[in-house]
Amino acid sequence: MRKRHHFKTQCSSSLRPQGTKPSFKMPFLLLFMMLSACAASPQDLSGKMFTFPQETNTARVMLNTSADNLSAVTVCLRSFTDLSRDHSLFSLATPSSDNGFLIFKGNSDKISLYVDNKQVDYLGLGYELNVWHSICSTWDVESGLGQMWLNGKSSPRKFLGGSRISQPIVILGQEQDSYGGRFDAKQSFIGMISDVHMWDYVLSPCEIQSYVDNLNFTPGNVLNWRALTFDVIGRVLIENRLLTCH
Fold it and tell me: What is the CATH architecture assignment of 45-240?
């Protein structure tokens, strides 16, 4: 597979003043070094969030993973939205499976987990609109079991099966209907997403609770919100996390 380079929008846009045409007088090697340095620098997003302000089939954030072959997965994130329609919260695709690992919110009190294009639904977890939710999903290839956690409340463990996850493309804001593409605006996310972490093993219930309570937890070793390499495409904002006053 051709190696993908993800350049953060903030970095690439800073290479020349806005409103000016690109100059090709700069030596190509120097330009390549600047872009490579920009792409290679993880960003600490502690206290930040991605804001997706409108329904589109383009706006998204591509996350650069540190592993290409996974036999187990835990994904945790926090989200805030008023969407009652279907929408994607976390979309991972592989060359053989557009729903390699997908966390998908349905139009009722249902959260679905897809692994290798197989789906299970979790009901009755108490999903509400216009509040921050902490959502975690786990799966491992040995047992084939998946589980969903909402704000520390766990679902039953359900069988998904599936095979190892290789060469993943991870996208926030859109749901991949092909490997890295074919987005549907009616499944896009509108709202805020923060604190995205991904591990190559199944977290214990205590570790998940530590994440939910924002206590001292081990950050993700595949995706780490405190050291994230990503590429913003379209109208997505990076803002300070909005906290509720008490």
Answer: Sandwich (2.60)
